[in-house]
Write a structure and sequence with these properties.
With 356 residues, the protein is an all-alpha fold. It contains 11 helices and 2 strands, in the order H-H-H-E-E-H-H-H-H-H-H-H-H. Strands 1-2 form a two-stranded antiparallel ribbon.
Length: 356
């Protein structure tokens, strides 16, 4: 009797575990596909907006209104010549873009994409891993991201690529400090490193941006630098370095570097929305009388809309502001943003102390 009971319990437990694992695999696959599709169509959005700013039409030949242009670009990259310099370190030359792409996709694992779905009384959270050190995980992954660029630039055995890689590494390390200090103030306010808990504390319209406007601005500027977007695109400055760290790359190896930039834009927007704009929360959500799953779907759409706004902002700034000189970029990071971030932490600590 006890053996039969034990077998039934084991089947139930294994079944639940299998269902959970299957759900997590499907969720991770869905987020992967979403990231790739967003990266594809971010290129079209950027080209359309650049054309608008410059009084041009932009891509309009591949499909109606040019919506198949990203697909055409992807096919073109697949069929371009696979070139590798004779003097390159072949293993590292291949590892560089692969590592950059892999790390860009890893960051999405701890982001809460929406409230939990409920199916047959079982909750299925729209978050791959709700770790209690989600912010530290993101910074750990970001700190590794510089290796993909540095390895690619060094392995090419090209002086322009190496200079671009050195620029990228020094820039990303410098601006990670300001970015980290800006988040310290958010952690002090919320008392948690879990992204899920930080989002839960911003329910309704109680967003962190109202309490941390300076921290939000510092994080936003650092996000531009971390993604190597203009006006911080010194690592691939074509007027000085030909193509920067990916000068010697072609075909899908180059495509990996370009895709990783747009995926980083997407993830940066998601992190900004999570930390400062309430994540998937929106005003008056508790008054709409939505079902649990209806709230989850609308919450995801709202979160995606916030990310889209930041994507628009990334593109708008690129085609509006001129590129910094490298000394100006370093001066902004070390002499302006880091002192401001420290000042913000001190003010936040003082306010928390006075409030008791």
């Amino acid at each position: 009797m006890w053996s039969v009971f034990f077998r039934v319990i084991c089947v139930l437990i294994v079944g639940d575990v299998t269902t959970l694992i299957l759900y997590k695999v499907l969720l991770a696959s869905g987020i992967l596909i979403l990231s790739l599709v967003v990266a594809m169509y971010s290129t079209l959005m950027e080209r359309k907006m650049a054309a608008f700013f410059q009084d041009r039409l932009g891509p309009n030949r591949a499909g109606p209104w040019g919506i198949l242009q990203p697909l055409a670009d992807g096919i073109k990259l697949f069929f371009k010549e696979e070139f590798m310099p004779n003097t390159a370190d072949k293993f590292l030359y291949i590892l560089g873009p692969a590592l950059t792409m892999f790390i860009a996709l890893l960051t999405s694992a701890v982001i809460p994409w929406g409230p939990a779905l409920v199916v047959n009384g079982t909750e299925y959270p729209l978050q791959i891993a709700d770790v209690n050190i989600g912010i530290l995980y993101i910074f750990a992954i970001l700190s590794i991201g510089v290796y993909g660029i540095m390895i690619g630039g060094w392995a090419s055995n090209n002086k322009y690529a190496l200079l671009g890689a050195i620029r990228a590494s020094s820039q990303m390390i410098s601006y990670e400090l300001g970015m980290g200090l800006s988040i310290v103030a958010v952690v002090m306010m919320t008392g948690s490193l879990s992204l899920g808990e930080i989002v839960d504390q911003q329910a309704g319209f109680n967003w962190n941006i109202w309490y941390q406007p300076l921290g939000f601005l510092i994080f936003l500027i650092c996000a531009f630098a971390e993604t190597n977007r203009a006006p911080f695109d010194l690592p691939e400055c074509e007027t000085e370095l030909v193509g920067g760290y990916h000068t010697e790359y072609s075909s899908m190896k180059l495509g990996f570097y370009l895709f990783a930039e747009y995926i980083n834009m997407f993830i940066s927007g998601a992190v900004l929305a999570t930390l400062y704009l309430g994540g998937y929360h929106f005003p008056f959500e508790d008054r709409l009388g939505l079902s649990v799953n209806g709230h989850a779907i609308i919450g995801f759409l709202v979160f995606f809309l916030k990310i889209t706004f930041f994507g628009f902002l990334f593109i708008w700034v690129r085609w509006t502001l001129p590129r910094f000189r490298y000394d100006q970029l370093m001066k902004l990071g070390w002499k302006t943003l880091i002192p401001l971030a420290i000042f913000n932490v001190m003010i936040t600590g003082l306010v928390i102390l006075l409030r008791g």
